[in-house]
Batch of 4 targets.
Target 1
Amino acid sequence: MTQAPLSLVWFRDDLRLADHPALTAASEKGGKILCVYVLDTSDAIRAPGGAYKWFLHGALEALRDSLREHGGDCLILEGDPVTVIPDLVAHTGARAVFCHHRYQKQARAQDEAVAQKLDALDCAFNRSHGTVLRNPESVTTKTGTPYKIFSAWWKGFQALGTPPSPLPVPGQLKFQDVTLKGKKTLKPCALGKALLPSKPDWGKKMGEYWEHGEDEAAELVHDFAHEALGQYDTGRNDMAAEGSSRLSPYLRLGVLSPRQIWHDCKDKGRTPDRDTYLSELGWRDFSWYTLFHNPELPERNLKPQFDKLSWRRSPKQLLAWQRGQTGIPVVDAGMRQLWETGWMHNRARMIVASFLAKHLLIDWREGESWFWDTLIDADPASNAVNWQWVAGTGIEASPFFRIFNPLRQAAKFDPEGDYIRRWVPELAKLPKESLAAPWEADPETLDKAGIKLGRDYPKPIVSLDEGRDRAMKAYRQTRSS
């Protein structure tokens, strides 16, 4: 009996075994499988940020542990995938490569280049949809033009029915060992050296907040679906509570699939809280849909009128924002949470983004770039869509003149000041009435709390009223020019 040929499974943003259509398709061929991950060192795709690389390291190690439990492993290489994958195919004699579709223009172009080289080697290139709920081309308007409004897209999405149920881990996995001895073009990757920070080891602190691995992520989904989901509609905006799912990092790297989360939450019965959360998963798909149809999303305003906006250049104020030293406590709390944990509460993300783009009038792309480097869950679609949403420059965007007032946001979503106290501890002794705006506190209150503004905590780097007026003036100029 002829043995089925070897297949490669090329892992990318899908570092799991369950609900992995590419792995399932490879296992169904009946032959042995070689799993591979390529740390892309080419210039074809935007280099990952530092925080993402830290989380990637843990996720890859966890994936290898999972594969070893099934008798396999993951070969981790570095280089240009357009060269590495065909070279690996030629070296091993594999007759098929399995992976998942990618939706970013540059990634799709890279995959097409790989496909052409594999075709010349008589090796099939099989792609499945495994990182989103639905293929971005499956939700269409009657005219065939892309949706520009989430609510309309969401109706179209729901009209297609429930997303398919997640797949189990394939039952029959047979793995191939491979030696790379003498293959100079196939360079094994030293994960720690390539991905982990060393001097200083700023990632060490993040390890206190995150666990890696498919089993750990599945446990988080279970806990969320049975606890916080029941109060999600209101609890998600309580900045000091654990009301959000905190699943975005696992979605970003594909340690979890969106279908797994969808079905775990859907099965809890229809409630406003559940429906709100499912629409948040929908927003993630909509972000990829938007990037697919607007490849320039991370670099260009999707509303051309804002190309005329006169953004300010202020390296000093940008640095103060990055370091959580703006003198606006709720903004600084969010930025410090980001720096320490690699993640930020969603309400805080909106507040800090609005402050940068509106009150400081600094280009949203500066913020998008900082989030790209410091968020463990930063992806090309959601990061850019959400920044353009807050800045008012993109699809489905909040109007530019909608400027978040940090004091009102703190009063509404951190009424007891617990979030600010947690992340801006130098203000912890202030009464809650003075916590959001310490510059308005009387000298006696500040003295009692042991605070001297400008010494223990910065004075505001901008007057909120003046910043708002400046932003509105700049906005009006874009409309009149």
Target 2
Amino acid sequence: MSTTLPVVLIVDDEIRSLETLRRTLEEAFEVFTAASTDEALAILQNEFIHVVISDQRMPDMTGVAFLKLVRERWPEVARIILSGYADNADIIAAINEAGIYQYLLKPWRPDALLLTVQGAARLATLQRENELLNVELKAGEPWMRSRVAAKRQQASDAFAMHSIVRAANSPLNRICALLTKVAVHDIAVLIEGESGVGKELLARALHYASHRAQRPFVGENCAALPEQLLESVLFGHKRGAFTGAYQDHVGLFQQADGGTIFLDEIGETSPAFQAKLLRVLQEGEIRPVGSSRSLRVDVRVVSATNRTLADLVQQGRFREDLYYRLSPFAVLTPPLRERPEDIPLIALDLLERMRDSFGLPDALFSPATLVCLQNYRWPGNVRQLKNEIQRMLALADAPVLGPELLSPQVLHAGDESQQQELAFLGSVRGDLKERLDQLESQIIRETLTRHRWNKTRAASELGLSRVGLRNKLVRYGLEPKA
């Protein structure tokens, strides 16, 4: 349920350089590193890589020779080479022999590197999509058409709303039902919720439940890129538009034409970028950076934020007109602590996906471990749960994952929670009715605080009408004074 990032492999025999590149790219990409070409080839054999970045001068073979080998075995992977020498012969050899996407000179600039790798990742994705399209166009035989249709259906099923892991009585069921209903209507959707709750997973499911399911779904984390780079990634740019723009770049809006674009962490964007995005949504047109011509695009926008956009509007930090453009339909995704019934199922699903890579194909949780996992509040949501399971697998010496493998805060969460509950109940005074009133007042206050005093959402969670909630607020003296 974490955000799906392009995968980059960096190859460099200098460890310091390797780490610098990794730190520069790791927020926007999933990054693998290799200190030798042999190590890199092993990673390519076992992982789905979009982009390979190689240093030119390495002891076992040159970067050009290595990337030529990559081109022969994995032609769909985009290739970038780094060199400290501006030798025209090297550049020509790199382009001609290894089909290099870009030749970057050292010292490289972080923003130029990010932009280049973003473009390479998009190219790799488009090449894979084109290969599939070519297969479809050549599929004259009925059996081939059936095979292609089956592959498409398999991809659609993998991201379908019913494939989202949750319990039969999960609070997430209501969110999925609402998104399924709105999916058939071509309107923008805003998904709010804490980091790690699976907002991108819901956005993908929305896309595959819509009439745009056979067209691209593309996404970008708006908080991961500087403003100029984000504008280029989304809208594209023309060659020479700025330093480092060595060729035209097709932006995500154009790549998503006919499909869906997912803008994650939209609340982190600057006012200047918000103004440009508003124009795109109003006009249905994009203008690549450095271009004098606008391009028409037909894209459904699904945005997400871990903040409350309405509050940012009140604070003057987010444009009100853009907010209303993005949120004809808005949903709030509940955090993991509000759906404890989902935790065992999600944990089991994550374990099944990860155990083979740790050499423990038969790994399973003990019943006591599942109880501990369910008792913890998971402030980092599914992302934190995944990290905890990875930790357990790394420490395990046997297939059964017992509570002793859990980190201390997770292991003792149940005890602490029970002690806090007993302490709170012991502090409540009065007869049974008075105590129940105090508990109800506390529950209402906590729910309103969590929903930032949005009474519609709080009433919905509590199973009350707005009038019923208002009466209780008056009864318990919780209505804020004007």
Target 3
Amino acid sequence: MAVDVDKEREFRDTVSVENKALRLNLNENIYGTFAEIGAGQETVRNFFRAKNPSGTIAKTLSAYDKDFSDAIYGIGENKRYVTEARLKNMLAYETGLIEQRITRNRHPNKLFFSYANTVATIDFAKKYKGHGWLGIRFQTKPKEDYSEIIIHVQLHENNAAKQQISLGILGVNLIYGAYYFHDDPVHLVNRLYDHLNSHKIEIDMINFTGPAFKDVDNRLMSLHLVKTGKTDAVMFAPDGNNVLPADLLYKKNILTLRGSFRPVTKVNLNMFEQSLELFKKENKVDEERILAIFEITLFNLKNEGEIDEKDFLDRADLLCSLGQTVMISNFQEYYKVVEYFSSFTRERMGLTMGVSTFIEVFKEEYYNHLSGGILEAFGKLFFKSLKIYLQPQKNAKTGEIITSENLEVEPRMKELYRFFKDNGRVVDIEGYDPHILEINSRKVFEMIREGQPGWENAVAEDTARLIKEYNMFRKKE
């Protein structure tokens, strides 16, 4: 077997957990507190095991009892403890305390930090795998405002003790990265997995804030998590901030529109608006609990070669300006999207797509990796009465409008298609604007890229204004 030189070098350059803790302990200026609840004191244990722990540890705390935890950090909303809000309360309280108790007169050069986690490991019945929040508030210069890194993790190991060990390793990697890699956040994220892998711990959300990260766009950090296989999907809200998918998707009725959105055209908006109205009328769909998601797959981002970060941010900015929630995923097949959502909600779901995309879904070649082939995939795709809302397509040559009634799938798939069609799983969007069916998003993109006039008619007025104002999608000089 050939040796992967890059991997060998990375292995040699990976500092052991013990040596990371030791280097921090021997730095006379790095000094802080550890507050760990829910999974023992796994992170700080690594610092105690290394030499000179008193050089780094001001205090360690495990407020395991809920009443003690409430007395220290306050009562959380709905009495929940494994939340981002609880973690932030812990970090704010502990950094405030160290500032009160360690005087600057005696320690003018100290770089204070507070590390905290609040975690639920796998339960005894192994019904819930476990998850948790980890974070650090820290200074890179004495007396400066604190910077912060907040992480959410899913725990995949099937044993609580193993999960605790992995959490301890991740905690050390986080503290070490905050101090030694804060000037390179992408490298910092990569080093979080030193001595770990995504089969043990999955980081599905990360946010950087504060003076050390003033130039960091957290959406790019989310993209990096997906691009490097650390998680399958990330989400951010209309304000552009990363959000935890589990929190956003929980018990929601979900309507998803997938696309390249390069840019968002009137066709996209019309599809979305019309399918949303149809979705609201579905049985057992609570209008108050509908979450609409515009999804961009990594496959779409890579379609034009190496991922262009500005191009990605341009798409994200346009979608957020329209008030939309955005998901970036590693799911090329639609059934994987449905499987993912189904892990967070049992409510009704809908997918919005155009005729050409729908025909592609019925190609058997995409499901050769499944033992059950396309039948297995469709069993997952049409989970829980899922419906597909179909945007008609205009045949460029004949002018014919193609709908679910006259579209053509592969001959072997006709009976399968008819089964889902006859059972009401495929619904035509009838309130479409016939004047926009000729809009071709690739042509619109090329016109913008080349600086050609006339593309403005294919997008919303505010979208056109933003594209011009921020010089989006233009060819690099």
Target 4
Amino acid sequence: MSEASAAPRPAEHKLDDLMLAMDVVDTIRHDQRLAERELSLQLSDDALIGRLRKIYSDQGIDVSDAILQEGVKALRERRFAYASPKPGVPRSLALAWVNRARFGRALAVFLISVAALAGGYYLAVERPQKLAQTEISERLPQSLKSAYSQALNESRIAAARERAQQLLANGEAALARGDAEGTRKAIAETTALLSTLREEYKLRVVSRPTSAVWRRPRINPLARNYYLIVEAVDENGRVLAKTIRSEETGETATVEKWGVRVGEDVYKKIMADKLDDGIIQQSVIGEKKRGYLEPDYTTPVTSGAITQW
């Protein structure tokens, strides 16, 4: 055997001694009787070493007194004891880093939820409010003034101008109280007024199938009300739909033919004209000109109309 191979290995012995010392400490920690009675009573190192020697001897393990002394010393110094880090910023940062994946998922879910709630609130509350505010402050006032200006320019009679001014006042009052629906209603009515003012047509008695009818009023079954069945025809021959209120039912309907109430003499004259050759020679009884609200009648009529007969 060579000199090199026979040489001692102090590093290995030191490692073995260290492992044994750690085992001694572990034995002391796990032996509750030692830890709670002898150690807590602060026995002398010799007494504690004696107890440890017996423990290892009972197990058939030969441990030198030097190792036992090293183990007891390490235990006294808490050399191999784990001390939990004290609470503080470094510990919190370390824990956060260790749990970053779990916290990251939770944070992502939280941020997505916040974004969804914010988006929903914006779409359901903020955006409609902004649109409504913009409509009240900008679009509706402009639309109201534009409709009024056009209606005023088209008016050829005082009644139409007064109606346009009243609708403008209604719309402005609605704007002042933030009533968008009321303002839109005023605009719609002004637009309808403008459409009426722009209309041009002739009121013509229809030839077929019925040109005139008579009706008995409910309040006086012995009397008769006479009507000419008419239609509004523009310069291109197109029949226009008109909104008419029936004096019999009190209901309003949009129709292309309706009955205009006339006296008995006008009724008989029209019927005689039709019976002559089946054609009404004087079929036009009025004309609606641009800028006016109602037709200018060339045949005497009375107030009242019907939409069914």
